[in-house]
Design a protein that fits this description.
Elements: H1 16-35, E1 40-44, E2 47-53, E3 63-67, E4 71-76, E5 83-86, E6 97-101, E7 105-111, H2 146-163, H3 169-184
Antiparallel strand pairs: 1-2, 2-7, 3-4, 4-5, 6-7
Biased composition (Basic and acidic residues): 10-29
Keywords: Cytoplasm
Pfam family, one: CS
Length: 196
Amino acid sequence: MMDVDSPLSDYDKMTPEQREVADREAKIRQDEEQAALPYTWTQELGEVDVIIPVPQGTRGKDLTVVIGKKKLSVGLKNTEPIISGELCKEVKVEDSTWTIQDNKSVLVHLEKINDQTWWENVLTHHPKIDTKKIEPTNSKLSDLDNETRGMVEKMMFDNAQKQMGKPTSDELKKMEALKKFQAAHPELDFSQAKIT
């Protein structure tokens, strides 16, 4: 992957067309590296799902699965693990699970401790993905906790108000406070006042 964070990197000096070609080549390389792994994986902000193929007919009692705060190991009993190593970030062990799918793969569901970061890889020694290129799935307001939902709704309201040339929620609060103050102090003249 290119380091697009360093000041005036080669990437910064590229034309938009060159960047598009470089991004496409990096994506192909990344996809090839990920396809070579002994598992596939997907993630959302709060969780990672890892699917590890196992021989057809494998049952739970045939497996050794270890999910630690910063460790993952999956394999058949009495053999070398199919995958084993240090997780790139910590997980909530008590909320992470594994199950067998169709007797031919193991699904390991990992709950992230930091549910506001994208993982670059599952195990630290495996190739990384470019997390800046991740396009999250659309979420619904109802999926958010109350505090975050309130913030998002306020931002949406303020944005709509600005587009219509109307005051934002903060400006409306200031106007309301001024009206209350004027009502409490009718002897003061606010006709020339500029509110900022």
